[in-house]
Specification:
Layout lengths: L8 H14 L12 E5 L11 H19 L3 E5 L1 E2 L3 H14 L9 H15 L2 H9 L9 E2 L3 H16 L3 E11 L4 E3 L4 E17 L5 E6 L10 E4 L13 E3 L6 E6 L11 E4 L5 H10 L25 H14 L3 E14 L7 E10 L2 H12 L6 E3 L3 H10 L4 E2 L1 E2 L9 E3 L7 E3 L3 H12 L10 E2 L3 E2 L1 H5 L2 H4 L10 H6 L2 E6 L4 H15 L5 E6 L3 E2 L16 H18 L8 E2 L2 H22 L3 E2 L6 H26 L3 H24 L7 E2 H18 L4 H11 L21 H23 L8 E6 L9 H8 L1 E6 L7 E5 L2 E5 L8 H26 L2 H6 L2 H28 L1
Parallel strand pairs: 1-2, 3-4, 9-11, 15-23, 22-23, 24-25, 26-27, 28-29
Antiparallel strand pairs: 5-6, 5-14, 7-8, 7-10, 7-13, 9-12, 10-11, 14-16, 17-21, 18-19, 18-20, 28-31, 30-31
């Protein structure tokens, strides 16, 4: 089999991925082995591969491939999330391009368009993950709106409703006017933005007096139903029980008192708009105020906005400020910084809005999940531990979860209305069961399904994905089936800290509610991928590289190494494309080392040299020590540290040391014992490296010998950790410093490697001479002798030992040495000129501190001595 001179990832990666797929190595079914299970954090069905996905899925693939090598039944379940808001927005946009409005379609017609879109675009990201080498069990690919998944979601909703955990309530919610749906608190990002504080005069009814109110949102005055003052504020005590007139709309509203008002903020008075602020809503409930909603669902003003009806809220803000100013109501405007809530998905500014929504009570449900992570006998481990504080804060302050969305793409809420009232509904898994419940509730057997109307809203996407570790194994519909019993709880979850509450915490809640068990053992929280300037990668900044282009340029193995070499658990990754180049270079180094080995001619009659035997013994100890370190790093989820240990082992210890030790002389054969041992070493190296660099390792593995499908590297047996000789490692490390010292002298003195040198040592450390033969081979040293006194020649120290190499003119490349010394002489003479000028400057000598003058004079003396030495050396060579 001819081995190509260069490693070409583009010709290798598809070949081996197809081979792995063809032989079904990724597929898992329950058996008598220990299971190792990972469920993929399902990327949005709208998504394409970006750097965050690359990092997250590389880590998962490393873990799953290693588990496979360790003999475990490795199962990595892939899938996608239907991503209600993002996907519906894309489908609506596509329909708009075709001249179709969502409002012109029935729900069924729209969902057909959505599923068509999903079929066309939904698998893109999963196909891209294959390019990265992700060894998922593709036969298990799940989608959160698959029929069986949706059935599980509906079943859970009904169960939680029947247990009293789900209720319908008229509450202040976060409204996304672009997506036209409510959002949970966790889907709102609060950003500090610069705006204005508007000071507006309100007339007091039946008086010439005015009251000045400060507001950041003058457009909401159309929804004002009271002005509130603090009862302890003496400035306004005379206004108790009075009424005020809202500017422009001239509505008369009461002046109420409440200690909620901050007397220090603004003017100390508060306009109360119960329909558009949660705190105002609380005041409104307490004081029984009228509620006036001034916005349409797209955040344009409705008829309460008078002549501003139909205009966008931000446009109205500018126009109403001008009108208030023109009519004498606006006193002044100040620049003001405040927190603005924005939609995580659409980036639109959130509008607080009163709405009938479905909520899940989280208080009692959260308790087992808190105990699971933070209790004395915690079952779920977060890596790194610092995120436990974040988890604690969220879970101990958890609020009821708003689980309804005003969307069609998603599981439709299984509530069926049979009358006109808000409470005239039943909750059931399907309409037939709902009909029976409605008949029973109304005592009316004349009801038919025609009398029932299902709630229009869909469930929050997270209400589907919080069941993911169970629903992918059908653990909700069939709670005792073979697969859920075997694979659950899963082992590791790899995800980002940004969804620690969105998804991770909720999965733990669901796990204890429906399996009375944790959903996973460990949660590895990766950092965010940032650029070298520490900026978060984004399309808008143009700093996010094309993931597939990186794979094309550096190979998947190179990109995987580039990502992981700089990625520590929980810390942000400063991505630098040069790291991918380093990964590609590492692949080439491994390939060239392999080609070197396979290029050796084998002589079965040759005995094994002692140097090779000793070198192999040393490397076995080095490998075992590295294996123990790798295991420790994996146990702590320090994958970048594990990779660095492997990188140094192969790049330095194997390629730069062992191969040099065992390499036969030029055009000479190698003995079979050594060759077979080196191949065994190489195979073990490939096994520990395979999880990180699956493609090149499989390629070399298959070149080493003609393998059967059952002998592929992907399912090989991982090396076993055994003891190692620590003294042997220390002695070798000492010897490498000696070798480096001799090589430095050879380089400095231009002594060609073909010319042997002698080495003398004053051995103050009483070091072992076990590696003397290896030192001789790697430095072409004819002899190593211990002496008690210094020997004439070049010298160096290693710890307290002193080494001497006698220099013979016969060994030196005289022409090269003369050229080097002449260059050194020129530099020294130039340096001396500068010092001499400084010391001949009377002003400098008169004003410089004594220690500075002493230093300059020492430099002068040292340089003169150096010049004399160089001239003497040159004289001896000429």
């Amino acid at each position: 089999m001819t081995i190509p001179s260069k490693y070409d990832a583009s010709k290798v990666e598809d070949k081996w991925y197809n081979y792995w797929m063809k032989n079904n190595y990724f597929h898992s079914t329950p058996d008598d082995r220990e299971p190792y299970t990972i469920v993929i954090p399902p990327p949005n069905v709208t998504g394409v591969l970006h750097m965050g996905h690359m990092l997250n899925n590389t880590i998962q693939d490393v873990l799953i491939r290693r588990a496979r090598l360790l003999g475990k039944n490795a199962c990595w379940v892939p899938g996608t999330d239907h991503a209600s808001i993002a996907t519906e927005a894309k489908v609506v946009a596509k329909l708009k391009e075709q001249g179709i409005k969502k409002s012109d379609l029935t729900r069924e017609e729209f969902l057909q368009h959505a599923f068509d879109w999903k079929e066309e675009y939904g698998g893109i990201i999963l196909d891209q993950l294959k390019k990265l080498g992700a060894s998922c069990d593709w036969e298990r690919t799940a989608f959160t709106m698959d029929p069986e998944m949706s059935e599980s979601v509906i079943k859970v909703f009904v169960d939680l409703y029947n247990k009293g955990h789900i209720y319908r309530g008229y509450r202040m919610v976060n409204w996304d006017p672009e997506a036209k749906t409510t959002l949970s608190d966790e889907e709102v990002i609060h950003e500090e933005r610069q705006g204005n504080l508007y000071y507006i005069n309100y007339k007091i009814a039946n008086s010439k007096e005015v009251l000045t109110i400060a507001t950041t949102r003058p457009e909401t005055i159309f929804g004002d139903t009271a002005i509130c003052i603090n009862p302890t504020d003496e400035r306004f005590s005379h206004l108790k029980g009075q009424k005020a007139i809202v500017p422009l709309c001239n509505r008369v509203i009461p002046i109420i008192e409440d200690e909620y008002v901050d007397v220090e903020f603004g003017t100390g008075c508060l306009k109360v708009t119960p329909a558009h602020d949660e705190n105002d809503k609380n005041l409104g409930d307490k004081h029984q105020l009228e509620i006036i909603d001034i916005f349409n669902d797209d955040a344009t003003l409705n008829s309460f906005g008078l002549h501003y009806e139909g205009k966008d809220r931000f446009k109205v803000r500018k126009e109403i400020a001008k009108e208030l100013d023109d009519k004498g109501y606006l006193i002044k405007t100040e620049v003001h910084l405040n927190k603005v809530g924005t939609s995580e998905r659409t980036k639109a500014v959130i509008e607080p809005r009163l709405s009938d929504q479905w909520f899940l009570k989280m208080g009692e449900l959260a308790k087992p999940a808190i105990e699971a992570v933070l209790g004395e006998n915690a079952d779920v481990n977060l890596y790194p531990k610092k995120f436990e504080n974040t988890y604690r804060h969220w879970m101990e302050n958890v609020r009821d979860w708003n689980i309804s969305r005003q969307l069609w793409w998603g599981q439709q809420i299984p509530a069926f209305y049979y009358g006109d009232g808000k409470e005239d509904f039943v909750v059931a898994e399907n309409i037939d069961i709902a009909l029976e419940l409605a008949k029973e509730k109304t005592n009316n057997n004349q009801l038919t399904t025609e009398n029932l109307t299902q709630d229009e809203d869909a469930l929050d996407t997270w209400f589907s994905s919080w069941l993911w570790p169970m629903s992918v194994f059908d653990g909700i519909r069939n709670p005792d089936n073979e697969e859920i019993t075997y694979y659950y709880p899963t082992n590791d979850l790899v995800t980002g800290p940004d969804i620690l509450f969105f998804w991770v915490a909720r999965m733990i809640v669901a796990g204890y509610e429906y399996k009375d068990q944790k959903p996973f053992n460990n949660v590895y929280l990766t950092g965010l991928v940032r650029d070298k300037q520490r900026r978060k990668m984004s399309k808008s900044l143009g700093n996010s590289p094309d993931a597939l282009k990186l794979i094309e340029d550096y190979g998947a193995d190179g990109v995987r190494v580039g990502l992981l070499l700089s990625s520590a658990a929980g810390n942000d990754l400063m991505f630098d494309e040069d790291l991918c180049q380093q990964g590609k270079g590492f692949a080439n180094k491994i390939w060239n080392a392999f080609r070197l080995i396979k290029g050796w001619e084998i002589d079965t009659n040759l005995p094994q040299p002692q140097t090779a035997k000793l070198g192999l013994e040393w490397y076995e100890s080095k490998f075992q020590k590295a294996l123990a370190e790798i295991e420790d790093h994996f146990s702590k989820y320090r994958l970048s540290d594990a990779l660095m240990v492997i990188y140094k082992l192969i790049n330095d210890d194997f390629s730069s040391w062992l191969l040099e030790i065992v390499k036969p002389a030029y055009q000479k054969p190698i003995d079979k014992v050594t060759f077979d041992a080196v191949i065994n070493v190489l195979e073990n190296n490939l096994k520990v490296l395979h999880p990180f660099m699956p493609f090149i390792t499989e390629e070399i593995w298959q070149y080493i010998s003609d393998r059967k499908a059952s002998e592929a590297l992907i399912i090989a047996e991982y090396p076993t950790i055994t003891s190692y000789n620590l003294q042997l490692l220390k002695d070798f490390d000492f010897s490498t410093e000696v070798i480096s010292g001799i090589r430095t002298i050879r380089k400095d003195k231009n002594i060609a490697f073909k010319d042997a040198v002698e080495l003398f040592v004053i051995d103050n450390d009483d070091n072992s001479d076990i590696f003397y033969d290896i030192i001789k081979k790697l430095t072409n040293t004819s002899s190593i002798q211990k002496v008690s006194e210094k020997v004439e020649g070049a010298s160096f120290r290693v710890m307290s030992n002193e080494y001497f190499v006698p220099i013979s003119i016969e060994n030196i490349d005289v022409e090269a040495e003369v050229k080097k010394l002449e260059a050194e002489l020129k530099r020294a003479q130039g340096f001396l000129v500068g010092i001499s000028k400084k010391l001949s400057n009377e002003r400098f000598v008169a004003n410089a501190p004594e220690q500075v003058l002493a230093l300059e004079r020492k430099k002068e003396a040292d340089t003169l001595a150096k010049i004399a030495t160089i001239k003497s050396s040159l004289s001896s060579l000429r």
